[in-house]
Amino acid sequence: xxxxxxxxxxxxxxxxxxxxxxxxxxxxxxxxxxxxxxxxxxxxxxxxxxxxxxxxxxxxxxxxxxxxxxxxxxxxxxxxxxxxxxxxxxxxxxxxxxxxxxxxxxxxxxxxxxxxxxxxxxxxxxxxxxxxxxxxxxxxxxxxxxxxxxxxxxxxxxxxxxxxxxxxxxxxxxxxxxxxxxxxxxxxxx
Length: 190
What we know:
Blueprint: H1 2-24, E1 34-36, H2 53-59, E2 63-65, E3 68-72, E4 78-81, H3 83-87, E5 96-98, E6 102-106, E7 111-117, H4 120-124, E8 128-136, H5 172-189
Parallel strand pairs: 1-3, 2-8
Antiparallel strand pairs: 3-6, 4-5, 4-7, 7-8
């Protein structure tokens, strides 16, 4: 009886500690993602019947502060521009420019980011992208639940699912739950 009562108190104390830690967010780890722009299509001039590929790609993803965009391209460039430069395919006021074939741009603030190809005709033909960045990633307090996603309806050929990868998840809560369970089992068995 004494051991069972002590195990219950120990279990309750540990649960309270986990709840308190979760409320204050002290043990959460932010999940950051790297998105490959255009997925398998990459960053290139779209064909005449696929000029909306980048707006479709951007609308099918959620971007947060701390995420990054990976642009992969050949014989082209990527420019971050302001809104006016985006709508007029004007590269003269570029904020940053890359032409190395593989470029990573960190999304370091909320709000819109505007990108165009440095090749004027490519931009005019749809090789441009607006990314709307939300605030920081919410901190996860529970481990992810694995649920099979229902099949998506087939609408028309388009970009593949996002290549974003989850980098990290909170582990401390899972570890503490395992420790509490183990201690409770050992205590009750004694």
